[in-house]
Each structure stands twice: as C-alpha cells, then as structure tokens.
Amino acid sequence: MKKRWDGKFLYYFGGIILSLFLCVGLVHMITGGESRDEKTELAESSQEKKSGEQPGEKEKENQKEKETDGKADKTVIRVLLRTNGYAGEVHPNVSLSAAGGLTLEGTKEKRETKEGESVTIAPDDTLFQGGTIRVRPKKEGEKITISSLKRGSGIPSYRGELELYQTAQGIAVINELPLESYLYAVVPSEMPASYEEEALKAQAVCARSYAYCHMEGQAYPEYRANVDDSTAYQVYGNSKEQEKTIAAVDATRGEKLLYQGKVVKAYYFSTSCGRTTNVEAWGTKVSDANSYLKAVKVEEEGVCYEQDLPWFSWNCDIPVDTLSNLFGLNTGQDVGTISQIEITRRGEGEVALEMKVTGDKGTATIQTENKIRSALGGSGYEIKKQDGSVAASAALLPSAFFTIEKNGASFHLEGGGYGHGIGMSQNGANEMAKRGKDYKAILKMFYNGVEIAAN
C-alpha cells in the first residue's frame, strides 16, 4: 500500500510542477518580456544598424585610438650620454646640480639637494638598491648640469630628466626629454648657429626625421636608449643652445621628411664636390624604399653652389712607405710595399665603391666609401684645400670622391667634398639659403620625391 501511494504522489507532484512552468512561459510570451541581457543586445544591434556600423567596428575603433595614442606618446627620446671624448658608455661617477636643486629618487630611497648644490653619485650608492636612479630638477624646465662631463662648449647642461643605471663598469647616464627639446641641442652641434636661417630650418627637419626613425627602436636596449650623443647618431649637447637654432626648431615644429607617406632617415654630411651619391656607397642595395637618396648635382644653371668653399676640392701626396704602413694598419691586410692602387668600380656621382691595392706581397680589394676612406686615412701626410690652406690627415680621407695615381715615390690624390656624400650637404644648404632658397626647396633638391609635413 505504501509503495502504491508514494508512486501516485510523485506522479501528481510532477504534473503540478510541469503545469506551473507552462503557465509562467505562457505569461512571458504574452507580455513580450525579455531578459536584461537580451534587451541590451537588441538595442546595441539596432543602434549599430542605424549608424551603419557592423559588429566589431567599435572594438576596431577603440584599438585604433589606442594605437594612435601610442604614436602620440612617442614624443620622448632617450639618449645615452657617452663619456669625455665620446670614448665610452659608462662613467666612473656622476656629479650633478641644478640652480633650483634636484630630486634624486631610487626604488627604496629619495634625496633632495639644495639650490645650486652639487651631488656626486658613485656606482655603490645606496640609491641604486632595487633599480635605477631618476634625477629631476625641482623647478620645472630647469636644466641639469653634469660637472663631471666635458663637451666642446665646456661643462654641459641638459633639459628633461636623467636616469642612472648601475653597471659592473660604472654608471650609464640616460637623458630623457621631449624630441623638440632634444633638437635644441642637436642643431647647433651639427650646424654652426651662424649659418643662414633657412639652412638651419633644413637642418632641424633633417635632424627631427633622423631622430624620429631611431625612436622606432633602441640602440641600447639594456638602458632603453634610442640613440647616443655621438656622431654614431647625431651629435647632441656638444655646442650650447643658441637663439637662432632654437628658432629654427620652433619654426619647423613637428615637420619631418616623408617618402611614400613614411618618415625617412634624412642623412646629411658637411660639403659636396658639386654632386652627391646614393646608398650603394655604403654597400646597401638600392631599392624603392631608399630611392629618396639619389645622386643630385648641387648646382644652379651649371654653377656649383659650393665651388668657392675650401673643401670643394682638395689634393694630397702620400709617400709610398707611409701609405703602405697605413693600409696595413687600417685594414689588417699586409700587401707589402704598395705599387699600384686602382679604383675598379664607381657609383652614382662618381664616388669610389671598390678599390684594388697591389703590393709586393699580394693584392687586396676594399669596398664601400667608408672602408676606402679608412684604408687611406691616418696620420703622416697633409691635405691641401683649394683655398691654399692645409689640414693634417685624419682617420678618414675627406671623401670617396677622388682619383689616385702613382707619382714617383708618392701617390697623388685629387678629390672633392667632405663627408660620405649621401643626402644633404650642409654647406650646400647654406649656400642655397644665401641665394634665397627656402628650407623646403633645399630639402626637396637633396631628397628625391619627399614631402615635408608634421605628421
């Protein structure tokens, strides 16, 4: 009996529950009710259709905004400050000061200095515990002086902030600052402030473009530094800021060289021989991407802009014994006493691309303008400029635009220009400015097919 009653109870109870579910569902359908999530989904779908958007476009827009923000944030450059003479990367110690005092902050400790007070940081300073040291001027906009460092203009001072890294060899010093502020100390270090206003503007655009491209990566990833302050990148802080050079940077604020819509490295050099060359001089294959760097004639109506400048042409006589010794030292190849040197291949603008050297112990072939200039460079002879002045030979031959022939017990070189010869001639730009050319006309002559824009 009990089993039969339990079975009936379960049967009736299940029927009641099922009936209740059916009733609730019927009421829900009649009232047109939806869950909150369903309402939200329908509303968003309707809004997307009204606005012509497809699902996912909002997410794409948000991502695009994030990417744009990332680019907008790329206005700060980090520069490794090398030691005296740009000889090394790390300093034995660093002495710092600022007119209004400094704040030095480590991970676990913070210090402050008084107005004008100098502080010296050694590699074993307790501020390094747990990380780097961030150095800021107390008064916004003031410069930080590094009295333990020497540059061409004396003791340098830097805008922005410093970050000090402890290494096994000493302290690496990174200067972090806005790109435009960086250019204030690059332009006068790369071009004399006495040059024409339009030439300085051209230099500012070149320097900004070059720096911007290097900000895409890190030359010193261990310090998160984009560049250093030497000629390996752009000379920075070697000369003091000048009103004229600051004005040139401000007048071109944000402007860069674009080729096919992309910012390009605007290479430049000192003086041309009336023509420039392309990247083949460096052993780089010429491509569509680098064809903005083409050989051009630096002239107007057949007259070279730089024809009256001292380095426009030069010559030198190098004794055979001197050149033989220099070649061995510079290249590590002992060909003995050199009997013949032949330029076996030239590039655009007649730059030397390949040189064959023959001696009593063998032959050697040198390629690219830099290696050729290096092979024939060094101390022990003089170079005569076209104005009659004389300069001592240096580590590099003035340029790779030259001819060479044996003349008795010496080799005679006839050459022209100073520098690698790719991109803008700085003295050419100045001479063009003297003749009324503006900075955009100057840049468009030296760089093929470029646009100048603040992107």
UniProtKB/TrEMBL annotation:
Keywords linked to the UniProt accession: Membrane, Transmembrane, Transmembrane helix
Region (Disordered): 38-69
Coiled-coil ranges (or none): none
Key word Transmembrane helix present: yes
InterPro entries: Bact_Sporulation_Assoc (IPR051922), SpoIID/LytB (IPR013486), SpoIID/LytB_N (IPR013693)
Domain of life (superkingdom): Bacteria
GO terms for cellular component: outer membrane-bounded periplasmic space
TM annotation in the entry: 9-30
GO terms under biological process: sporulation resulting in formation of a cellular spore
Key word Transmembrane helix present: yes
Domain Sporulation stage II protein D amidase enhancer LytB N-terminal stretches: 169-259
Protein name in UniProt: SpoIID/LytB domain-containing protein
